[in-house]
Amino acid sequence: MKSLLLLALVIFAMNDTFAQPVIKVRGSEDSVAHLSQIIKCLDYLDIRENICLNVYFSSHLSNQLDGTTYVQPAPALNGRQLVKVIVIRIASSLTKEKQSLVLAHEMIHVGQIIRGELEFDKQQVIWKGRKYLDRLLEPRRTPWELEAYRQDRALAAISTLPTVTLPMASHTAY
Ligand SMILES: [Zn+2]
To answer: What is the rounded average pLDDT for all residues in the chain?
Structure first.
């Protein structure tokens, strides 16, 4: 049973190594922890698409936002974007705990974007096919924000759990 569990863990680790999304973390004071959290969020949110995810911790966020997520225009071939480039910006002034919560929140938006539920089109946001004028909306009351606020605490909690390390003895099989 133990070796089966170990095998499952090894396969899981290999899947992580060869996962399709390309992740870049910049400006973080704990990039190892943040990268680990992002990988776990991608797993929990079942995001396996070939995306490029750039996560920036920055002191220059507009409108005093804690975090924001958007799609960055990327090189296209025959009018088709080759890779979806998604950018997350998080205020570096936040506490470590708040940064993890905001990261989980923004990852929920990444999931919404990947599933095609949330789209950005200049001045408007399209949610499940319906157009919203972004600037006229109360930021916390839109359906995509309500969904993210409903789920972000649970996702932050589960994605920041320390990774289980098996004791040496259980690795030894005769
Ligand atoms: Zn949000």
So the answer is: 84
Q: CA angle, 35 as apex, 33 and 36 as ends, to 5°?
A: 65
Q: Residue 12 is encoded by which pair of tokens?
A: 């899981």
106 alpha carbon – ligand 1 mean position (Å)? 6
Alpha carbon distance 142, 148 (integer Å): 10
21 CA → ligand 1 middle, Å: 21
Architecture per CATH, domain 17-162, reads as: 3-Layer(aba) Sandwich (3.40)
pLDDT tens-digit map of 4-56: 444 444 444 444 445 478 999 999 999 999 999 999 999 999 999 889 999 99
Which tokens in the block code for residue 104?
């989980």
